[in-house]
Records
---
Amino acid sequence: MRISPCSAQAVELGPGDELVVIDPEGQQVSDVVAFGNPDHGEYLSSGRSLDYASRFWLTTGDVLYSNRSRPMFTIIEDTCGRHDFTLTPCSKDTFRIIYGENEGRPGCEGNLAAALAPYGIGVDRIPIAFNAFMHVSIDATTGEFGVLPPLSKAGDFVRLRAEMPLVVAMSACSAGQSNNFSFKPIDFQVVRRNPPSCSNG
Amino acid sequence: MRISPCSAQAVELGPGDELVVIDPEGQQVSDVVAFGNPDHGEYLSSGRSLDYASRFWLTTGDVLYSNRSRPMFTIIEDTCGRHDFTLTPCSKDTFRIIYGENEGRPGCEGNLAAALAPYGIGVDRIPIAFNAFMHVSIDATTGEFGVLPPLSKAGDFVRLRAEMPLVVAMSACSAGQSNNFSFKPIDFQVVRRNPPSCSNG
């Protein structure tokens, strides 16, 4: 499945299903957010996940936790190795405040909210995303950080195993700084643990 | 006002009011969360605030933004200079996962939720806090971080000016690692921009 540049899509996952988020052309970012299904009060929590990993950059073997400290995903394969989990999705306000851009483009926040609208999940509920392939570097002394071009090459991917029933939304990022000012698509695959069978014989 | 060790309190602020969070004995942490008042759908956002500052550690002059990218607080004075804004408040699950502690202590999360219960704000809504005086150090190469004893000395404080009507909750932290295993109180003062007057003459 392809997510067009500057857009987002949602998908439902069951426990054990695998979501493969792919950067087909290289140097593109996908903001991934997740909610419990059907209880959307549970959501992907950066603060819990980082605290339990004691590491800012997560990769293979790390667990992405919910606000209720339950595993939502395990990263089971990661050909890139560098992602961000500290920043909120770009939005029309991000563009205004950081870039001085007043066109009102929805950004990943607006695109994720549109993808999640059928589930009744509003824009206020969009948390800090697992920003796949986003490359944030930090100065450990001052705490200043830079958003650099992603390290991902064409075809790099991160494979996430769902650990509970989830509604997930993913974007193809709209922020120039995050993708080296080259807006590109994102691909994804869902590998079902238990594919639907024909129950009618 | 004093917040007893391992507890939390809530307070309402109007625009221009100042909240002074004080570490009376030194090396104690206060997790501060905030919500719009009366619209609690708006909340203090780590991801927005860090993104707009391009810095992980915030101090005097920095603005703490809401999820709607509106200023909630400005830090107008800071005698300590080092705080965290990346981790969620400690909770019974934090103690279990990180410390192997199964007593079920509520932690800052539970204490903040209890303080916010009169406002109808439930535990699922507790976001990443502005963790005043919390000292997180990071290895810029690996992203690994450590929670170190706070740099705050007795009497250090951070002065926050409210930029909109807010419900704020603050804790005296319950996590040993955050306060050098010495559970202490936190003090706070509210300086009203427009003190209530006697309208009855």
---
Amino acid sequence: MPPQKLSGKPEELAAFIDKFDIFLFDCDGVLWQGASLLPRTAETIAHLRSLGKQLLFVTNNSTKSRTTYQAKLQGLGIPCGINEIFCSAYSSAIYISRVLRLQRDKRVYVIGESGIKEELATEGVAYISDDGGDITPEDYDSFGPDEDVGVVLCGLDHAISYRKLARAYQYLRNPGTVFLATNIDSTFPTHGKLFPGAGAMSAPLTYMTGRTPVSLGKPSQAMMDAIEGVLEFDRKRACMVGDRLDTDIRFGIEGGLGGTLAVLTGVSTEEEILEEGATVVPDAYLDRLCDILG
Amino acid sequence: MPPQKLSGKPEELAAFIDKFDIFLFDCDGVLWQGASLLPRTAETIAHLRSLGKQLLFVTNNSTKSRTTYQAKLQGLGIPCGINEIFCSAYSSAIYISRVLRLQRDKRVYVIGESGIKEELATEGVAYISDDGGDITPEDYDSFGPDEDVGVVLCGLDHAISYRKLARAYQYLRNPGTVFLATNIDSTFPTHGKLFPGAGAMSAPLTYMTGRTPVSLGKPSQAMMDAIEGVLEFDRKRACMVGDRLDTDIRFGIEGGLGGTLAVLTGVSTEEEILEEGATVVPDAYLDRLCDILG
């Protein structure tokens, strides 16, 4: 069945909204584009809140912690609680502490930025990382396996370096070391272009070891597991709202959510949504999120 | 037929040597291990020269130019001419100028070290590279496709960075830009361990673009083509000598050389060489290169 473009009729919109108790929102391309809030976003969010809906902001971006995201949302006029934010740095920390149940005496080796480190610290997970300097002759001698490192976690890192990769590789040669990625997006959209994404940070390690990381970002269901690790909700009464078919909408469908809603303010186009033979099809779509206001 | 371990009998050794006019040598693991020359290597090389054999030193290491390699060989007591050295930095330069015949007004974007840049300059190929600093807000705006960049060439780079990869990605989005790698070795053996190899530098770009680079290192036959671009020889009268089945010996077999000789002073073991059902099998092998002296 082709996805339904929701009309502006109040009764149709109300019927769609009434099917759900919780809405999971992707952020970039749904609420904002880069630094600019999309029209009437704050009003839309406030409207859903006034109807008693639970909200969750779910993003693959691992460079920011929930605290930083909360400040960003509030700065854009969207008040929200920290428990309403689910970024891949947080899902990684939750997964390590509550799903993997990493032993207290083991550490996580992090390739990534402050968002990951903050969330690991908040969750009480010990971690180490590399200062990112050049590899030295001493490093060649001293680098090696480390039984204390139980997990290598790889996220977007604008200071990725040879030394960081060389250390990760030594740890991953131990088959007992778990290989995780905050997400495996190949690219990261910003400034209207594409730049290397978190998946480009783990790609060299996959090439060297033949190992594929478990991803804690959409569409991986490990992220859904992490969400359920901290929040009880009825999947059949949940709707995933996103701009990307291959991550957001797929995440909702494979997670068995009650519904998926696509918006056309980001990556995926109306042609892609309506394409015959498409494997990932949302239940409904809108030009812009605020069209849900009627 | 299982490979023959050459006995020390003078007539058998002479019969093997007599089949060839030219010997192609891998270097690391054959002539030396790290910084240490293997026993009687200089004597062995001198012996083959005294028999009138042509010699070629063929290495995937792209960080050094032929001039630097020549100095290394001479420093280890192996006199050699610059034309006897074929490193992947040189094969890349030759391939670009003589096989691709890159237009004079086009440039090569290099991820790699001084060896590549020196060889491109010697071959008269214009190139640009990145200074490797952090990516800046201005970069996000200014980075983009560049019609002047005809080739992206990727080799081992101990100063690999996000900015270098981000620029390469923008160039490679143009399907007309040729994607080359000096070699695609996943790891680089040094200090008795494995560290990220040149293939780990191009892996993020492959992951982002879905494009696989043409490799100019063993076992790629593009390297054999590059050798033939500067040196005429009868492949049937040539023998490849190496320590790795998957690169050196495969390179010789797929290149249709008259013979291949493995040595056990490097990566591949006698068990691997004699393994039943192995797909890459040398014609003969020796414990050490100097055993060819008898």
